[in-house]
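Researcher: I'd like a structural prediction for the single chain below. Treat it as a standalone chain; there are no partners to consider.
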Amino acid sequence: MAADAITLARPYAEAIFARALETDRLAPWGDTLAFLAAVVSDPMARDFVTNPAVDQEKKIEFLLEVAGERLDTEGANLVKLLVANGRQVLLPQIAELYQAMRNEHEGSLEVEVTSAFALDEQLERQLATLLKEKLGRDVHIHSQEDPGLIGGVKIRAGDLVIDGSVAGQLSRLANELGI
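Model: Treating it as a single chain, here is the predicted structure.
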């Protein structure tokens, strides 16, 4: 289903990106999509906007009311279009694809860093500097903790994965030993 959702979301993301470029509003559209994606990702909101017993007008009214002043006319029109086509649940994928297109356009890259312990700001900046040198692009780091890594970090930048975690090293050692 995830691949299907991405396939269905792509034309919307491409159209929004083209419009954002045309109107020089890349950042505002990114904020709008991120907000709407967060709304429909909430379990209660998701249940409401996907409930077939709730008519389209109530779904539109709900999303527009929750968004309030965050949506301009074009954002409201997007909500209406998505609900009319039964595609409001695709907002997280639309936002993700849009952000990837924006990053490509701006020459930047979203990087997920998972570490066994919380990274402080200084360490994140150092890591961003090193990754910028290696990848040749501006880097935006999103970090999270996973004590299961035991130590070290795991870095995901697009298709590139660098697993410098202790858990990853132990797993590779176990594979080499045939365990």
